[in-house]
């Protein structure tokens, strides 16, 4: 599955319930609500650089190799270690309090995060 590209936020489902479930501070939750996050993915085999550009200039970058432990950062800014796996064409990572999957579906980046039964889905359209 080729992930490389630049993707712009298009829609999401269940944002408020999810950020409440994971305990995201209200200021960070408000910042993320309906914001036009641009996700830039550079893939070279199993090596990835995954960058999210937020309005206002804030950027979060995670660099990882599938199957190897890497230093990561959550959307709330918490740093942790995780091993990203590839399962059925999806990238899968276990964050501190949720499981995150990413896949390319119909040319769009579809990300699903699940925490204690609460599912958040974000879809981004490819712009480059």
TrEMBL record:
Keywords: Cytoplasm, Lipid-binding, Transport. Gene3D superfamilies: 2.40.128.20. The keyword Cell membrane does not apply. It is found in: Cytoplasm. InterPro entries: Calycin, Fatty_acid-bd, ILBP. GO terms for molecular function: lipid binding. GO terms for cellular component: cytoplasm. It holds the Pfam family Lipocalin_7. Residues 5-22 form the Cytosolic fatty-acid binding proteins domain. Belongs to the calycin superfamily. Fatty-acid binding protein (FABP) family. This is Fatty acid binding protein 6.
């Amino acid at each position: 599955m080729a992930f490389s590209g630049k993707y712009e936020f298009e829609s999401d489902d269940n944002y408020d319930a999810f950020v409440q479930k994971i305990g995201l501070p209200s200021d960070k939750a408000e910042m993320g609500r309906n914001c036009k996050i641009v996700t830039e993915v550079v893939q070279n085999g199993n090596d990835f650089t995954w960058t999210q550009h937020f309005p206002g200039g804030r950027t979060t970058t995670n660099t990882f190799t599938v199957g190897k432990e890497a230093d990561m950062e959550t959307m709330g800014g918490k740093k942790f270690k995780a091993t990203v796996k590839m399962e059925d064409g999806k990238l899968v990572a276990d964050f501190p309090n949720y499981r995150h999957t990413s896949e390319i579906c119909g040319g769009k980046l579809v990300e699903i995060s699940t925490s204690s039964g609460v599912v958040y889905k974000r879809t981004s359209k490819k712009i480059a």
